[in-house]
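Bug #77: duplicate submission created two jobs. Keeping one. Sequence:
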Amino acid sequence: MKTNICIIGLGLIGGSLGMAIKKKKLARVIGLTREKSKAAMAMKKKAVDFATLNIKGAVHDANIIFICYPIHLIIPEIKKILRFVRPGTIITDVGSTKEMIVGKAERLMPKGIFFVGGHPMAGKERVGLELAESNLFEGKNYILTETKKTNAKALLTLVSFISKLGAKVQVLPPDVHDRIVAGISHMPVAVAASLVDSVTKSGKFAAKMKQLAASGFRDSTRIASGDPSLGTDMFITNKKAILSAIAAFKKSLAELEILIKRGNADRIAKKLSQVKTFRDSIYR
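Kept job's structure:
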């Protein structure tokens, strides 16, 4: 039997999911969007087999539903679609925080409908369907969540399906996911934004800093060019883990500040060498 996939939200992630599924001929893809123009674009980009603005028409025959909306819209969307979803359907999302979403979604699920939280560690600072690409998930980590309420068969189905997109699937508890991404995904946004903010508040030097900013500043602050609403969602919904990560960052920065004040070149060099070794072990 042909697998039917419904993708709700045809932006960068949703569009790329559809393009990857269709490229690998894994399933029939139905897209649900709020805009006629986006439905037409999704068809033109071959991100979907069919796009509609009708909720029931999009989700009723789906085996798997991917909700590719910003974090604050995921739970409201689940509430909208549930009365049209048939038993046996798997619902997943792509939000970058999981504990809040998974907890609320699991409480909403009727008997026979299954929710598994998801988070593809792929994306760009700019978003939009026009930037979607079929190989976005190739070689990228894709996290799925598991709790005591997770249906084992539904989880295995998603692991198998997403692996076929070329992604490397990892299964984590939602709270563990949130603590990890706070450090490696959400904190970079906080740090980049704060760095840019510090430059804007440099008084008489700010204009010249802007004029002379080169690759170092560009590379360190690239992620600050992302959609502000996405950053806001991250900080509000992953508050506890973010605050813990900020505390750790402030401690590390304070330690470096002390070494600089003391003019301790040997200790500074040792610290920079340690962080270089760790970073180089990630990005070879």
